């Protein structure tokens, strides 16, 4: 075929030939443009192979570039997922040094940047090695280990959970360790507060029992004091004896204070009594009086003056007396505890259109603006340890809402606070 394509053309001879081909080219030109077979094979064979090879290479390079772009996009996506995980993740090498971590790690780990840090910096500071307690060292031995530990940060204690898992690579590559870090401070504090709440509940039950036991001898003391005073009134020999005059004053004081103690104990028993959950007509003024009588000793010891302004024509509300009493007590206790030295707490009741209002005001430390939205959350408290569990306002809020009412607060830092409870008036049948 190639020979047919490259065969030299026949030049016609005859009387009518002019030495010019039909296409206008002379025989000499044909001779000058002659391409031999070897030259044409070199031109169309080797060079064509080179062009095809480079085209294939170019296509492969384009395919590899597209694959690299796709791989880079997937790598960025996986990295974004890795960094968005809420727990801290760190990769420890066989040298017990952090080689890699996600973005969350510095925020979760206790004050450590982690890159280049060792397991000793995180789990056993002060000791270079701790094979029995260090989870990283255990994972390097092929064990999976979970631990809990604490760290001091800015004068506060943080609680952490950590788990270490061995990562076995291809044969010949050393084992690495994947460590997950989680800040469980909020959960741990809630657990501690729940334990404290259970303890306080147990103390409350015990206090109710003790109050019952104290109530009996107090009744005897008050009864005998009253009997002696009646004897003085009925027996002239005792009534007219000047030597006994001072004893009658003593007996009057004994009887008065015994009745006062009995009233406090009765209030304690009232508060400890389980709520029946029955909605009845409730006058809030007696509930306020009961709460303030119960708080009397605490307010005197704290140098807090109590001012009560109760509306005489206060309309009744529909509610559970025990629950509403608890709301008033919680608000009053918060007001007393907000006063650091000397101060005043005012409790006001009034009619407000179709509702009844109870206002508890204090001139104490007030509430910071950033805390105003959090005070209704369970276990949120700014009080020192032992002064509260952070449940009072949350419980009060839920009780008021169940009664179809509202509770609000107006407060300024160092200017005091005013809590207002609004409850719907009892509808006439």
Describe this structure in words.
This protein is of the alpha+beta class and 429 residues long. The protein folds into four domains: 53-78; 88-183, PAS domain (Beta-Lactamase, 2-Layer Sandwich); 184-273, Helix Hairpins (Orthogonal Bundle); 277-429, Histidine kinase-like ATPase, C-terminal domain (Heat Shock Protein 90), CATH 3.30.565. It is 47% helix and 20% strand. The chain is built from 13 helices and twelve strands. The strands form three sheets. It has a five-stranded antiparallel beta sheet with strand order 2-1-5-4-3. A five-stranded mixed beta sheet has the order 7-9-10-12-11. The chain has a two-stranded antiparallel ribbon with strand order 6-8. β1 (88-92) and β2 (98-101) form a beta hairpin. α10 (284-294) crosses α12 (321-337). The radius of gyration is 46 Å and the shape is elongated. The relative contact order is 0.05. Residues 1-33 have low confidence and may be disordered.
User: What is the structural class?
Assistant: alpha+beta
Instruction: Tell me the total number of β-strands.
Output: 12
* Total DSSP helices: 13
- What strand order characterises the main sheet? 2-1-5-4-3
CATH class of the largest domain, please? Alpha Beta
The CATH architecture assignment of the largest domain turns out to be 2-Layer Sandwich
Major sheet size, sense and barrel closure = 5 strands, antiparallel
CATH superfamily of the largest domain: Histidine kinase-like ATPase, C-terminal domain
Oligomeric organization of the protein chains: single chain
Secondary-structure element order, N to C: HHHEEHHHEEEHHHEHHEEHEEHEE
- Radius of gyration over alpha carbons? 46 Å
The level of helicity is 40-55%
Count of structural domains = 4
Uncertain residue segments = 1-33
CATH topology title of the largest domain: Heat Shock Protein 90
């Amino acid at each position: 075929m190639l020979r047919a394509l490259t065969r030299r053309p026949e030049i016609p001879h005859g009387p009518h030939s002019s030495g010019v081909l039909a296409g206008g080219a002379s025989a000499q030109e044909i001779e000058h443009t002659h391409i031999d077979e070897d030259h044409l094979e070199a031109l169309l064979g080797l060079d064509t192979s080179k062009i095809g090879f480079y085209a294939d290479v170019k296509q492969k390079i384009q395919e590899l570039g597209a694959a690299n772009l796709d791989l880079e996009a997937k790598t960025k996506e996986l990295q974004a997922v890795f960094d968005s995980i809420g727990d801290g993740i760190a990769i420890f090498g066989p040298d017990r040094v952090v080689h890699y971590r996600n973005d969350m790690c510095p925020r979760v780990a206790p004050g450590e940047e982690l890159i280049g840090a060792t397991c000793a910096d995180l789990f056993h500071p002060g000791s270079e090695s701790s094979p029995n307690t260090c989870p990283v060292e255990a994972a390097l031995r092929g064990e999976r280990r979970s631990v809990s530990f604490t760290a001091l940060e800015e004068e506060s204690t943080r609680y952490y959970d950590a788990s270490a898992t061995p990562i076995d690579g291809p044969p010949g590559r050393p084992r690495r360790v994947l460590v997950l870090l989680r800040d469980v401070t909020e959960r741990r504090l809630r657990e501690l507060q729940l334990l404290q709440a259970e303890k306080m509940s147990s103390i409350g039950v015990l206090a109710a029992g003790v109050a019952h036991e104290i109530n009996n001898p107090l009744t005897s003391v008050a009864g005998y004091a009253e009997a002696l005073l009646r004897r003085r009134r009925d027996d002239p020999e005792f009534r007219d004896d000047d030597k006994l005059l001072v004893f009658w004053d003593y007996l009057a004081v004994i009887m008065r204070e015994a009745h006062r103690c009995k009233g406090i104990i009765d209030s304690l028993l009232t508060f400890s009594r389980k709520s029946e959950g029955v909605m009845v007509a409730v006058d809030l003024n007696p509930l306020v009086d009961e709460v303030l009588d119960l708080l009397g000793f605490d307010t005197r010891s704290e140098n807090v003056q109590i001012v009560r302004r109760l509306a005489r024509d206060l309309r009744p509300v529909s509610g559970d007396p025990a629950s509403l009493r608890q709301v008033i007590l919680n608000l009053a206790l918060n007001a007393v505890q907000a006063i650091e030295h000397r101060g005043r707490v005012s409790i006001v009741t009034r009619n407000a259109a179709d509702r009844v209002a109870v206002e508890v005001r204090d001139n104490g430390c007030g509430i910071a603006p950033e805390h105003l939205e959090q005070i209704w959350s369970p276990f949120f408290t700014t009080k020192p340890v032992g002064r509260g569990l952070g449940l009072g306002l949350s419980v009060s809020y839920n009780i008021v809402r169940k009664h179809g009412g509202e509770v609000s607060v107006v407060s300024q830092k160092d200017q005091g606070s005013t809590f207002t409870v609004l409850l719907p008036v009892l509808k006439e049948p």
